[in-house]
Amino acid sequence: MPLIRIGIDTGGTFTDVVAVDEETGRQASTKTPSTPTDPAEGFMTGVRKILALLDARGQDVAAVVHGTTVATNRLLEGKVGDLGFVTTEGYAHVLEIARQSVPDGYGNSYFWVKPPRIVPADLVRTVGGRLAYDGSELRPFDADEAVAAARFFRDRGITTIGVCFLHSYANPEHELRMRDVLAREHPDAVVSISAEVLREYREYERSVTTLVDAAVKPSIARYVGAIAARLAEIAADVPFYVMKSNGGVLSADEVARQPISTVLSGPAAGALGAAVVAEAAGFGSVLTLDGGGTSTDVAVVVDGHPALTTEGSVGAYPSKIPMIDVVTVGAGGGSVAWLSPEGTLKVGPRSAGADPGPLCYGSGGAEPTVTDAHLLLGRIPPHLLGGEIPLDVTAARDGIAALAASLGLSAERCAEGILEISAWNQANALRQVTVTRGLDVRDFHLVSFGGSGSLLACRLVDVLGLAGVLVPPDPGNLSAYGLLTVDVRNDYVRTAVARHAVLDPGAVAKTFDDLTAEASAALEREGFPEPARRFVRTADLRYFGQAYEVRVDVPDGPVTAALADTVAAAFHAAHRRLYGYDFAGDARQEVEWVNLRVTGVGPIARPALRTAPPGTGATPRTTRRVDFGAGWADAPIYDRAALGAGDTVTGPAVVEEFGSTVPVHPGFRAVVDDHANLLITREVVA
Amino acid sequence: MSADPILVEIVEGYLTSVEKEVETAIGRTSRSPMIRDAHDYRAGIHDRRLRKLTGRSYSALVNPVVRDYPIETMRPGDVFFHNDVYLSEGGIGHLPDLCVTAPVFHDGEVVAFVQAFGHHDDIGGTVPGSMPSRATSVFEEGLMVPPIKLWDQGVPNEAALKIMTRNSRMPESLAADLDAECAACLMGARRLAELFQRYGRADVEACFDAILDKTTETFRREILAKIPAGTYVWEDYAEHDGVDEPKLHTQRITLTKLDDRLVIDFNGTGPQAKGPINHAGDYADGAFLKKWLAPILRNLADSPERMAELEVNEGVVPLIELRFPPPGTLLTPVFPAPTNARTFVILRLLGVLAGVLAKAVDGRMPADQETIRYTGVYGDDLDGRPYLMREVLGGGSGGRYYADGEDTIHVVPDSRNLPTEFSESRFPFVVERLGLALDSGGPGRYRGGLGYEKHVRMLRDAHFMSIADRSILACWGVAGGRAGLPFSVTIDPGGPGERDVDALADAEPVRAGEVIRIRTTGGGGWGDPLDRPVDEVLRDVRWRKVSAEGARADYGVVLRPGSVDDPAADEAATASLRASLRAARTGDEPFFDRGPGYARLAGGATSAAVDHR
């Protein structure tokens, strides 16, 4: 029986692979360069490499789970030119108008240049027929105009089309008829209708979400299809799953039904993996920090669940699809240090990336980066990936020394400054994700991972007053590991506006039943037997007149007036938690139900966490000259692989492993826990 | 001492983050829709010398607080409040802007201030919302509170809170908004105190100096250097004040570029209005207006990307000298002149500065935009419950020497329009059309952005309200560019009851079934429309932004008969029409085009003397 599950995370530079043998619990991980021109190439190299490590064959593979942002983002580029859009009469310019908002500062409206619309105005067609907000029909669907629109696109060779009619979240009838007309008149067209992509009110956002779905549908189907075909090289019918931005997975066969949900999957896997590791280590709520080459992603995990948002965007386009709320800052290992015209030191957001990369890679990089600063100070070893790639210390020093000279600093102080600025950039992002939710950053541990995520861990504890930092084993592969922990998860939503006082529990029950049936059908297609399917009901409520909603859980059981009151009470409480007040006792402030949601979950067995053998006392492998800010001194260097549970490393020290390094600053200590995590805290001064 | 270049970067990022955290906290915990949904609030961080350190947007001033409560008398836990326009040193423009100031302490001394103001929904006065469009004195506009100590060493002043909430039609949310502002400012003050503790006062203050010096240097090098030495004059107008019949309410700037600074002289500005469009600007050396106007200077930077990077903090102040006319003008009103609609003047002032700079730099400034006005309907909904729907509809921005103007945008960052799918579920009307007003963008080599065309069909009898300027005068075009179309409202267009509604309307009756058609302003055009490439005109036709008639009349482009989906130019007819249009010119056309409405208010004149270069 096949028992190996493989997670593959394709990044811009490296493809990370983790595999677990569910029988023996044995885990393995590896890395291979990504192959942007044909991502399937790097993907298959990774699969073969990991199978070789486990001494396994294709037939042993139970599932492959894939997450990527870079590959799908690239699919979006330049592909949206052939899109057409059909909308309600009177709304031909809905995309041009957008929400009338101008980003950022006061007065920017004078010079702001709107980015190009996802569909140019001449490829927007309108069709008569109008629904009201409750789904009732104000004017019938105009079939003649629908035919004219379909032929317009057919005659111009526009074969990817999005359809969004007003209030179709309440009644998809007109959109379904439009799709029928397109199928008849223009059978070659790939069509997305908004009622199937996102049944939620706000016409501009729903339109764009639907159009992104349509735009990526052909290319994602091709991408997933190509990888699935290559997988057949190792064995027939290997189950293949794709990560979604909401923190679930989807089988490759289902991708064509909801392509947009897979577009931003990369950061989600990391946050999920971090949540699993943290929970096992005893921390239900943590901040996560994924440090890569070009940028750093931060997120909040509350009670084991990464926080979700429906206010995200795909590239330049807003998308209301639920996604894990990740804030990205341009502060990674490749971030470039430069002098502003005013003579101050800046770090990022520009990155040298992997190509040409930092000076020390010796592959043509001409500007000093964060990685060069770490190297100069001895905080990382003079090689990458356990010695596979040597680093050029002299090049790093020369570049930073040149920058330092124009600032009147020594090379060491300049390097120190580069790292300090980089740490503050990350710290400010971590503050934003907590303040937005009314949380205090000092109450949290941070889980740091990714190739560069843990390099500044001690500085972040100091700058933010964090409780501590947890560094999982093999932190460079946590995103790939996260892919193995993910359930099948599908979200369904319907806007059904009703005041709580006159709510019809029967109507709510009917909508929940419909959504549950949809979710159940999808899980059935994924092969989950009925008893295994789980459903989570939530609702978005607001105070009458407000323009924003708060999401609360809807308990299991029949929808009765009493259950509805429980939900309303939960809404009052959640509103107070989030905004500091509520109107629970105020009869003038009515509660209104807005969106009903069902999430269908098909649980997947999570791999057992690895356990660390008991430690025998940490023994350094060697020493190296390291500058932790107070001048050069010999610091012990530890191999992480040689550390066991309970071993303690006291700073100044450096802990090294394949693909990642943890500098432990003076005044800090790192303790290995039972799952081989390093828990870094400030040393308590006796 | 000179600042550590690394610490400067850290402190600058820290201040930006704290400002954002304070604004996030206010947005999250306040209750007024104007704050929550329309984003009408701002935070700012100031040093002990009252200099604004952060620069994403304008904010109020600390000066009036320190004037009445000397710094050395302040104690930890004190929080100050004011909204009194005439005692705000020019930092507060109208009474609904409630301003809270918290001092930051280090080693027992005040080292900085965190300040925030937000537009609360009601602070009393003669009408709900405290913005009476026909007010003739500030006493009609609501409760005036000069700087007071709202919290005294951590203890809220119950008496003041009672008086203030008693005077609002929305007492609970007023109290909640004040709480939100106070809590957010105190949080910001704690965060700043941590900065001083971590790095020490001398080092942090050296960074403050460096941050402001940096802005001064950047503006000197990248902005002022672009303006040739000399003196330039221009003026523009508000068209009505809510009380008098429409007329030209002049705002004039005489700009003089000296070696080391700009002199902006407002002499020539018209007399104080009877209605509420006055702005009390002549205080604290115009410190508020300098920072309010400086964002316009950013248009002189090398690229739109660079313009967006430049921050306006106190560092711009040494570069600008303001000269005010004697008391009794639109910018120097005498108490108790009303001010609640002062946006008519201070938003226009941005355009006056843009225009006078255009004269100085050969037109390399954006043409005019007008992006704030209030329109709404109110009455009883289908369940018989009273409602008020009030929204801000943006307009088109002006053409630029590098790009067309943008359609339907709003000057206030992140302020959004109402989705039809929201408003139809909430109010008794159907939005039959939410589109762009065809041909509303001012013609030009770079066309002005288009305004809205919104059709609202009422399901029940209701009243329509509007507070808008630019309904007679248009957004001006420059450097050969033409004016956009002005704001207009028509009820029952094409029907038996068709009628136009004044731009200042409090209660225009609308019957069930009638459509209200609102068209907002198009931006002015930039450069000669006859120089616009034919392809771009054809694209605008395909995009339903310019009509076939507009292509001919405004751009001299003659279309062949056929569908607007595939427009084609008659090249010979176009060349000949463009030639004849050029030949008909006198060569003495004004540098600015104000549109046909100007003549109506200017005794038949088609341009002002200052409109020529």
Keywords:
heterodimer, A: 686 residues, alpha+beta, Nucleotidyltransferase, domain 5, Dna Topoisomerase Vi A Subunit, Chain: A, domain 2, 4 domains, nine-stranded mixed sheet, globular, B: 613 residues, six-stranded antiparallel sheet, 21 strands, 28% helix
Task: Give your account of this protein's structure.
The complex is a heterodimer of chains A (686) and B (613). By secondary structure, chain A is of the alpha+beta class. Chain A has four domains: 4-76 and 221-262, ATPase, nucleotide binding domain (Nucleotidyltransferase, domain 5, 2-Layer Sandwich); 80-217, Dna Topoisomerase Vi A Subunit, Chain: A, domain 2 (3-Layer(aba) Sandwich); 283-485 and 621-626 and 644-686, Nucleotidyltransferase, domain 5, CATH 3.30.420; 488-602, Dna Ligase, domain 1, CATH 3.30.1490. Helices cover 30% and strands 28% of the residues of chain A. Chain A is built from 16 helices and 37 strands. Chain B is α+β, with helices and mostly antiparallel strands and 613 residues long. Chain B has a six-stranded antiparallel sheet with strand order 1-4-3-2-5-6. In chain B, strands 13-14-20-17-18 form a five-stranded antiparallel sheet, with helices on one face. The radius of gyration of chain B is 25 Å and the shape is globular. Chain B starts with a helix and ends in a 12-residue tail after the last helix. The model of chain B has no long low-confidence stretch (mean pLDDT 94).
